[in-house]
Structures are given as C-alpha cells and as structure tokens.
Design brief:
Strand order of the largest sheet: 4-3-5-15-6
CATH superfamily of the largest domain: Periplasmic binding protein-like II
Number of strands: 15
Strand content: 15-25%
CATH class of the largest domain: Alpha Beta
Order of helices and strands: HHHEEHEHHEEEEHEEEEHEHEEEH
CATH architecture of the largest domain: 3-Layer(aba) Sandwich
CATH topology of the largest domain: D-Maltodextrin-Binding Protein, domain 2
Largest sheet: 5 strands, mixed
Radius of gyration: 24 Å
Number of helices: 10
Number of domains: 3
Structural class: alpha/beta
Length: 302
Amino acid sequence: MDTDGLRLFVMAADLLNISAAGRQLGLAPAVASARLAKLEKQVGADLLHRSTRKVSLSLEGAEFLPFAREILAQQDAALAALGHGRAEITGTLRLAGSSTFAQRFIAPILPDFLDRHPGVNLELKLSDTPTDLIEGGFDLALRNVAIEDSSLRARKLADDRRILCASPDYLARHGTPRDPGDLTGHRILMFAGGRVRKLKPSGDGPTPTFPPSDARSRVVCDDGASIRIATEAGVGISMNSLWSVHRELRDGSLVRVLSGYEIDDRSAIWLVYPKSNVLTAKVRAFIDFLLERIGDPPVWER
C-alpha cells in the first residue's frame, strides 16, 4: 500500500482540507487529489467526501483512519530503528481526558512540553464524559478506571484517592456529620453515573456506603469542576478526588468530612493508548513528560 498516500489521507482527515494537506507535503492540489483517488481505488472505498464547500470523512474513512495512523507509526518506528528517522519528534498528538483534571494539571504545563518539542502539535478533547479512544482516533486518553478493552494498553499515572468534603459555611449551618449515619440528614452532591462506594473505617467496624440509600441527592452533575465549585459555595457534601480539591483543603475553603473513613475504591489515573507493537515517539514523549511532572508521587501530595 502507498504509504505516501496514507500520509496524505491522514493529514487531509486532520485538516479536512486536501489542498492544505498537499501543500504541507509539497504537493500541488491536482497531484494531492490524484494521489488520494489512487489510494481510494486501492482500498476499494471512498475515504473522503468532497464538495465545493468542504471535505469530510466518509464512514469507511473514519473506520480506516486509525489503521492508517498505525501503519505510518510502524513505518516511522522501523525507519528510526535503522537510523533513518528524524531526531526531532513531530506530528499532531490527539489527547482525550477529563476537563477537570486537565484544567488543574495539564493545561498549566503545556508550554514546557511545547518548548521541549517544537515539532509537536496538540489536539485536546476534554470532557468528564468518557470518550471512545479507538473510534475517536485518539493517540492517548486519561481515564480513572482500569481498562477492560483488549485493544487498549495503559500506564498508571497516579493513585486517585477520594474523600468527602463540604464548605465550612455549609457545616456551620447544617452540622458536621460524626458518622456515616448522619449523612441521611444532609444534602448530597453526586457525580452523574457515579457508583456507590464503601466507606472503610480506620479501625474495626461496619463498612457503610456513600451515598447512603436514604440520603438526599439534591444535585447531580456530570462535571467534576462544577461539583467542586458548588461544594465550596455551600450546596452540600460531595465526594471528590483529592487532586481536585487539595488546594481548597489547604486554604480552608473546603473541609474534609468523616476523616475517620477512607473511600474503599483503589481508583487510579491511567494513561491509555491503542494496543500496538509500536508506541509512537510523540506519544512516548508526552507520557514521559506527564509522569515526570504529575506522576508518582503525585504533584498534589508533594
């Protein structure tokens, strides 16, 4: 298969512009169009829809794109092993992850990464709602659950310790829970789709759950940052990752609730990437950078 045509297709899919992709590869528009047409004839499918107004991926093109990326990654790695690769890491890295985590820990350190690797561009899709890594064509994703998909691999970035907290003002108005049974009379903020977790006491004793089955979940939200802000504003008691609230705990705007209990969760933050024989240089560089700047011991516990 023509790898030059594959490279043009991947770039055109990223830019949604065949002429612009061709220019980056030193090709005239007519040559770029002819090369893509040749590739489509080889694979037996229209990979891109063209019109006078725009270019878009076809269904077949969307399915083919991750495989095209992998073929090019294999080629680049093979050439690098023979000493033919470029010393400078280049390309666009597509990252999916939690917007709450990215705002606190990834966005502030991006200038350092870009300075280290001027040939790398970043495309970030940030949402607290999980994104399909393969279908979305992402190189890397941040997740806080262990992977079950056999087509993916993962590297642990840090433990994800959870705690219960509330604002001092809320506790002054509604009282401070002394044991899990007291939560029944409090307002609870819940993450949308969040599962029930066990509360493990520091000593011997029963293991209740959060939230209790009879507690009032007055607010349900799918955005971690908004839950933290609402908790700080005095809406109620919520469960948060320590990385999300460590600053507020230090400055006193949030207070830990039921500190004698641990969330029996064993959650962690994982760097997840498609399973393959080759980890591309840009992905490896970004993983190493995140481990250095954020990882064990996690920056929020240093």
